[in-house]
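[job 0417] fold request received: Nitrile hydratase accessory protein
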Amino acid sequence: MSAAAAKATAAVPSIPRDDDGPVFRAPWEAQAFAMALTLHERGVFTWTEWAAALAEEIKRAQAAGDPDTGETYYLHWLATLESLVATKGVTSTETLHRYRDAWDHAADRTPHGQPIVLQAEDFAR
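[job 0417] inference complete; emitting structure tokens
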């Protein structure tokens, strides 16, 4: 486990982990985790700030009916990541939505098992 991942798992005790460190159910979860590590290392937020924002996101989701079985943990992680980068001015909510819509469009046209590639027309919708 990297030093950054070790710091994150110490600061955010809810991170799913085993004896070797964080565990992920899908590649996108590891990527979201890595993005948060990078943004923390660049000073965008502290782990204390991250943990509080993540706890609030999970609390909102539970109030809305999330059964909190652990299967949605990284959905909350991603929502927290999006919220904090918008709040901190790294990007805007509008830009996040624009890219999410473009990725959805690109994924819809990509055959299963092939890499998703964004193209200019993915942003035209």
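[job 0417] notes: The CA atoms of residues 36 and 70 lie 19 Å apart. The longest helix spans residues 47-63.
[job 0417] exit 0
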